[in-house]
Every structure is written in structure tokens, then in C-alpha cells.
Specification:
Distance between the termini: 128 Å
Helix content: 55-70%
Radius of gyration: 64 Å
Shape: flat
Strand order of the largest sheet: 2-3-1-4-5
Number of helices: 18
Strand content: under 5%
Order of helices and strands: HHHHHEHEEEHEHHHHHHHHHHH
Number of strands: 5
Largest sheet: 5 strands, parallel
């Protein structure tokens, strides 16, 4: 139950507390009478309002007519049941599942239909024919109300049934075997209490039991704890409906046992309270703590265990106290003589202290519960504020826009009123001016106006012809421009195609030229290499020839063997044709021989004698090679 609904629910119980107590008084006393019809009617009206707080949106009987979307927002924002149904159907929207939603007719049914229509759920009425021949991967909702006369007929095979309220639970208990049945109940509310009572109970006693339980339920309603949100429960049950074989990880919330304790023990509590007011033994009274403390206590006299028999009867309180405090096994067994009066006083004081301790614990527990209640209320209020704040800001924004539009409309109305007043003034002036002229003047003015009108008609016809002419020219120009533009576009496309082809051809030409240039460069390089090889061969040949020339020339004394005798028998070369003459004084003449030795001698200088080897000598032939 939402925070705002909880407040209304608790206020309804508080405001009608006296009526419920008057009704319950007949069942807490020994009166033989029964409550009157007027009182029963008042109690039934209170219970009906409490059921409405559980089943219907807030202020459903006082708000004006709303649109479908507004009804959906109002229902899901003020009722936990509608919020649960909305979240559950939203989770099952994309599943091929058939769900039956059963509720009472009227406000609840209308708001459920608003949810179907706003979220575009495919739904049909229960009393109409249902055709599901086409298999669709979408949710199908069957909406039924308790006033439909269709429950005595065979019902469609559905996957899940949602019993929205107590009326649905009474009409449809076991009519859908095999389906998952979800009975929506607000925790700790009047419908939760009513479900815990046996159906065989008398109506008058049922009302009395509900009244006692409502008095206790206020605390639990005001400070709920350990409860899941509607969207969390919707996700949990949607997963279970999709996969029924999976185990449902959820335990139903049990009604606290305190709800019916007061009703079941009301007579016993009244009897016990009456007995507690009487004297313990009928002859002696229990002294108060102050009176006993003012009397000096005597020291307990210890001695041998001498027990005396007496016919004094102990009170029930003393018997219960002695029974609850049995001797300890390890304690001393030695008895002590104590008067019964002292024991009675000690038992009474102990009982009073224990009662005070229990009262204090109860007060502390109530304070603790009150603190928890206030904390839960604070969290609920914060959550409600967080939910309402965006809507409030949106409403303020809408109000601001409405004010702006209203001011603009008022300004337009004021401006139109001014223009209307001005027009009326002009009309009045024209009327006065019209009545001031004579009929002849009016006829003359009329003829002038007619002539002017004919003139203007001619001008209008001429202007119309010119307009038609220019329109035709303009249309022709536009058509020509369109054709020209189309031709230009075609030419542009042709140019782009030719440019693309030209670019491809140019690239091909460049590739061919590059390949030819590379081949030409490679050919020139090969020619250069061949030429270089040829030159190297020529150089090598020239070197060989030079080496040959050098090998055929006689070495000088300085470069051969210094100060060595130049004997003819020591040289492998034979002497030339010249004689033994001095080389410095009489050089040998050049005979013009074409032998290599002659050429070498000529190249080396004139006046030098050369020793030529024989033309062929087998001993030195290998050196010549």
C-alpha cells in the first residue's frame, strides 16, 4: 500500500473508532443483546470504505472525468494493485501467454481497461467470443467482471488468472484448473484479515473479529517493513508464469498473530483483570511498597530445621511466585523461618517490579516501533516526493505555458475589441455622412462609383490577361529551364564519364610510357655495361700489351742489379746487331725495324742500344706468353 493510501486507510479507522468499539462492546461483555441494524450498517459502510482504499485509486469518486492515459497514470500512481498489474503485464508483453484479469465492475474495471488501452495490450471481454487461432508471440488479456453471467459455462484454457479483489475471489474460486492463480491482497489490510477468518463464522462475529484486528493493524499498516515493491514482485511472478517448472522463490506474507490475540482472549483478560483487583486470600491485603519500607524489618532467625504446620492459605500470586523460583540444586537446603505476610509482600513487590519491567520493555518496544514507523514513513514520503516532484514540475511548466497562452489570447481579444470599436466608429461616421447628402448627390456619387467600378473591372480584366500571359511565359520559361537543367545534368554526367575514361586512358598511357622508359633505361644500362666491359677488355688488352712491351725491354742497371757486371753470357737475351760500343758516346742508329724491341727502343729514346731476343727460342717462349 502506498504512503498516501496508508494515511487515508489509518485515518478512516481512527475516525470511526467509536463506532467499531460500540459494535465490539456487544461481544466483550456478557450482554445477551445483539447490535442493531443501524450499527451494523455503519460498520459495513466503514468496511466498504476500507476495501475501496485497497481496491480502487484514491479519490476515484470525486475527481472529474479523465482521459485514458490520465486514468492509467492515476491508477498506477495511487494504488499498489494497479501498479502490480501494470508491471506484470508489461513484463509479459512479448510472451505468448493468455492471462485472465477478473475484478468487480465499475471503477476498477474502467481503470484496468485504461491500462490495456494505453499500453496497447491485446485484450477481449470474457463474455465475448475469443479467437486465438493465429499463433502470435504477444500477450493476450481476457478481462472479466464479476457481474458477467459466463461462469457457469466452460472457461477458456488460460495460463494465469489474476483475482483483483475480494469480489473476484468469491465468484471464481476453482474454475480454472491448471492455471496459475494470483490473488491480489494488500498486506495487513482488511481483506488480508478477512481471508484469515473461517468462512463458517457468523457474520456478526466476523465483523467483531475484523474490528478487533483493525485496531491492532494500524501500527503494521503505518510502518510496513520487509515488503517488496510492486515492480519487484511483478518481475518475480512474470518469470514464474513464463517458466512454471521453475521454483518460485517467494513466501506469502503471514498475518501477525497479534491481530486476533485480543479478540480471542478478551473475556479471559477481563476475568483476570477483575481477579487481580481482589485481595490475595480474602482476609489480608497486600501492603504497598512504601508502607512496607516504612516498617522496620526483623532479622530472619536461623536455627534448626523446625517446620510448623499451619492452616494458613497462600494466595495464588505467592504460589505462582514460589513455583517460578524453585530451589537451585547447588543451593543450601537449610530452611529459614519467614512469615507468610513477608512472603506475600515480597511476592507482590516482585510481581509489581516484573510488571513495571514488562511495561518498560513494552514502552521501549513501542518507542522502537514508533521510530521504525517514522523512518519508514519518512522513506515513503521521500519516495512519494521523488515521484510527485517531476509531475509537479511538469504541472507547473504546463501551468506556465497555459498562463502565457492565456495572456496572449487576452491581448488578442483586447486588440480585436479595439479594432471592433474602431470599425463601429467608422461605420457610424459613414452612416452620418450618408444621411448628410441629398439624393441627387448620392445618385451622382453612385454613377461616379459605378463608372469607377467599370473602369476598375476593365483594368482588372487587362491585369488578368497580363497575368495569364506572364504566367504562361513563366511556365514556359520554367519548363525550358527544367529541360535545360536536365540537359546540363546529362552533359555533366557525360563529362564526368569522359573525364573518368580520360583519366583511365591517361593512367594507362603513363604506365606504358613508364614501362617503355624503364625498358629503355634498362637497355641503355645494359649497353653501358657492355661498353664498360668492352672498355675493360680493351684496357686489359692494353695492359697486357704494355706488360708485353715491358717484358721485352731491357732493364737499366739502376733498376735491375746495381754494380753488377754486364756480361753477355749472364743475360738470357742475345745482343743486338750493334757492336760493343759505348752507349753514351755512340748510340745505335734506328733501323726502322717493326719489331717490338725496335718500337720499344724508339719509344724509350734515341741513341740507346737494345738487345733483341731471337725470333724464336724454345727456352724463353713461355715468358713471352
Amino acid at each position: 500500500m502506498l504512503a498516501s493510501t496508508r494515511n487515508l486507510y489509518v485515518e478512516t479507522i481512527r475516525d470511526n473508532k467509536s463506532t467499531i468499539e460500540r459494535y465490539s462492546h456487544y461481544f466483550t461483555t456478557e450482554s445477551a443483546g445483539n447490535p442493531g441494524e443501524q450499527l451494523v450498517s455503519e460498520v459495513d459502510d466503514i468496511f466498504r470504505r476500507l476495501h475501496d482504499h485497497c481496491d480502487l485509486p484514491q479519490f476515484s469518486d470525486s475527481i472529474p472525468a479523465l482521459s485514458t492515459e490520465a486514468m492509467m497514470r492515476h491508477a498506477t500512481g495511487t494504488s499498489s494493485k494497479f501498479s502490480f498489474v501494470y508491471e506484470l503485464l508489461k513484463e509479459l508483453k512479448d510472451s505468448n501467454i493468455l492471462v485472465l484479469v477478473l475484478s468487480q465492475p465499475g471503477v476498477a474495471s474502467d481503470h484496468l481497461k485504461a491500462i490495456y488501452q494505453t499500453e496497447q495490450f491485446h485484450y477481449t471481454e470474457l463474455d465475448r467470443s475469443i479467437e486465438l487461432e493465429d499463433e502470435t508471440e504477444a500477450l493476450h488479456v481476457i478481462h472479466g467482471t464479476t457481474d458477467m453471467e459466463v461462469f457457469d459455462r466452460p472457461q477458456p484454457a488460460v495460463d494465469a488468472v489474476i483475482l483483483f479483489d475480494d469480489a473476484a475471489r468469491q465468484v471464481c474460486p476453482d474454475r480454472f484448473p491448471g492455471a496459475i492463480v494470483l490473488s491480489l491482497v494488500v498486506a495487513n489490510s482488511i481483506e488480508h484479515i478477512d481471508l484469515q477468518l473461517p468462512r463458517s463464522m457468523d457474520d456478526l462475529e466476523r465483523r467483531s473479529a475484523i474490528g478487533f484486528a483493525l485496531a491492532v493493524s494500524k501500527t503494521f499498516i503505518s510502518s510496513p517493513h520487509g515488503m517488496q515493491e510492486p515492480n519487484e514482485l511483478a518481475a518475480l511472478f512474470a518469470d514464474y508464469i513464463k517458466n512454471p517448472a521453475r521454483e518460485l522463490d517467494w513466501e506469502p506474507l503471514a498475518l501477525p498473530s497479534q491481530f486476533f490475540d485480543f479478540y480471542l482472549s478478551s473475556q479471559a483478560l477481563e476475568t483476570q483483570r477483575t481477579g487481580a483487583m481482589s485481595q490475595p486470600n480474602g482476609r489480608k491485603r497486600v501492603l504497598d511498597g512504601d508502607e512496607r519500607l516504612s516498617t522496620p524489618m526483623k532479622r530472619a532467625r536461623t536455627g534448626p530445621a523446625t517446620l510448623t504446620q499451619s492452616g494458613y492459605l497462600m494466595s495464588d500470586l505467592l504460589k505462582a511466585t514460589l513455583a517460578s523460583y524453585s530451589p537451585r540444586p547447588q543451593g543450601s537446603p537449610q530452611p529459614v523461618e519467614v512469615t507468610v505476610d513477608q512472603l506475600e509482600w515480597m511476592a507482590a513487590r516482585l510481581s509489581r517490579v516484573e510488571q513495571e519491567a514488562r511495561d518498560r520493555s513494552a514502552v521501549e518496544e513501542r518507542v522502537r516501533q514508533l521510530v521504525k514507523q517514522k523512518e519508514m514513513e519518512l522513506k515513503s514520503y521521500k519516495k512519494t516526493v521523488a515521484t510527485l516532484q517531476p509531475k509537479y514540475l511538469e504541472a507547473i511548466s504546463d501551468r506556465g505555458q497555459f498562463e502565457i497562452a492565456k495572456n496572449a489570447a487576452e491581448q488578442r481579444v483586447a486588440k480585436l475589441e479595439e479594432e471592433l470599436a474602431k470599425s463601429r466608429t467608422e461605420i457610424q461616421a459613414l452612416r452620418e455622412k450618408l444621411t448628410a447628402h441629398t439624393p441627387s448627390e448620392l445618385e451622382a456619387r453612385y454613377e461616379a462609383v459605378v463608372a469607377e467600378r467599370e473602369k476598375l473591372d476593365k483594368k482588372l480584366q487587362s491585369a488578368s490577361k497580363e497575368r495569364d500571359f506572364f504566367r504562361d511565359r513563366l511556365q514556359e520559361g520554367m519548363r525550358t529551364a527544367t529541360e535545360s537543367q536536365s540537359e546540363i545534368n546529362q552533359l555533366k554526367a557525360r563529362i564526368e564519364e569522359l573525364e573518368r575514361k580520360a583519366n583511365d586512358t591517361t593512367v594507362r598511357v603513363h604506365e606504358i610510357n613508364s614501362r617503355h622508359m624503364a625498358d629503355e633505361s634498362r637497355r641503355q644500362r645494359e649497353e653501358q655495361q657492355a661498353h664498360i666491359a668492352q672498355l675493360e677488355q680493351q684496357v686489359e688488352q692494353t695492359r697486357k700489351e704494355l706488360q708485353t712491351l715491358k717484358s721485352n725491354r731491357r732493364e737499366t742497371r739502376a733498376s735491375s742489379v746495381p754494380r753488377s757486371p754486364r756480361l753477355n753470357v749472364m743475360s738470357p737475351r742475345t745482343r743486338g746487331g750493334g757492336g760493343n760500343t759505348s752507349r753514351g758516346n755512340s748510340p745505335a742508329p734506328f733501323d726502322g725495324s717493326s719489331t717490338p724491341s725496335s718500337a720499344a727502343g724508339q719509344a724509350a729514346g734515341m741513341g740507346m742500344s737494345f738487345y733483341q731476343p731471337p725470333p724464336s727460342h724454345p727456352r724463353f717462349s713461355h715468358l713471352r706468353e
